[in-house]
Specification:
Strand order of the largest sheet: 1-2-3-5-7-9
Order of helices and strands: EEHEEHHEEHEEHHHEHHHH
CATH topology: 2-enoyl-CoA Hydratase, Chain A, domain 1
Strand content: 15-25%
CATH superfamily: 2-enoyl-CoA Hydratase, Chain A, domain 1
Number of domains: 1
CATH architecture: Alpha-Beta Complex
Number of helices: 11
Radius of gyration: 17 Å
Helix content: 40-55%
């Protein structure tokens, strides 16, 4: 079966909390169909009057998200289709930004590239100590252009630059917490889930209007992101066609 067609996005709504879980057999990487499903589901939960909080998580224990699907990246043949692919990440980030509900991230394991972008877009993010982060885009011939505004907004320009340039180095979860990407880091996934439940039980009882008001304040100054991320997607879509990118991504797939 075509790997780009595998995986799922599930949504479970219980006690005013929408838990959105995604999965892909290739370390929870994200092909176009899953990106669209993620953005659509987040926006739908934002419109659901029964939902107060949204939790974003992935399946499995070892990897939160490996970022873009290499199988799909290597098959891109023109700048237009390349832009469309990267717009998938833009759409998820913008969905989190505009959905009107606080999005709580649960990062149980490593996050790479677009996975770091997802964690950065969350309004509050919890992780295990196994959740190392890396922006690997430069190492495969492109750059973290689309997710860059979300990452920079959360960790600052200096830390974003460090990750973007030092593209082969894993940064530990403790570093990510120090820089503001993670709000809480726990020794085990079990502790992470226990605290997440405790946090949700308390927060979901808060005034929904106050929570929505905070959401608007947190994202002030990002109103131009639809246009900005569109431009960034075009940059990535053109760059992924370079000989360097094609050869590098192809090499990763052969390993």
């Amino acid at each position: 079966m075509d790997k780009t067609l595998q995986g799922y996005v599930n949504c479970d709504i219980k006690d005013s909390i929408a838990t959105i879980e995604f999965y892909h057999p290739s370390h929870n990487s994200l092909p176009s169909n899953l990106l669209k499903s993620l953005s659509d589901t987040i926006l739908a939960c934002g419109q659901d009057e029964n939902v107060i909080l949204i939790v974003l998580k992935s399946s499995g224990e070892r990897t939160f998200c490996a970022g873009a699907s290499f199988d799909e990246l290597v098959s891109i043949e023109n700048a237009e289709s390349g832009k469309v692919f990267f717009l998938g990440f833009a759409s998820v980030i913008n969905a989190i930004r505009t959905c009107g509900k606080l999005v709580i991230g649960r990062v149980q394991g490593k996050a790479v590239g677009g996975g770091v972008g997802l964690a950065s877009a969350c309004d509050y993010c919890m992780a295990s100590k196994w959740a190392s982060v890396k922006l690997s885009e430069l190492a495969v011939g492109i750059g973290p252009f689309v997710i860059g505004p979300a990452v920079e907004r959360k960790v600052g320009l200096s830390a974003y630059s460090q990750m973007a340039i030092n593209a082969t180095e894993w940064m530990p979860a403790s570093w990510a917490k120090e820089k503001g990407l993670f709000n809480e880091v726990f020794d085990t996934v079990e502790q992470l889930d226990e605290y997440l439940k405790h946090f949700l039980d308390i927060t979901v009882k808060m005034n929904p209007e106050a929570l929505s008001g905070l959401k608007k304040i947190f994202w002030e100054g990002t109103e131009q992101w639809e246009e900005l991320l569109d431009k960034r997607a075009q940059m990535s879509g053109e760059m992924v066609l370079s000989k360097h990118s094609k050869e590098t991504i192809g090499g990763f797939l052969k390993k």
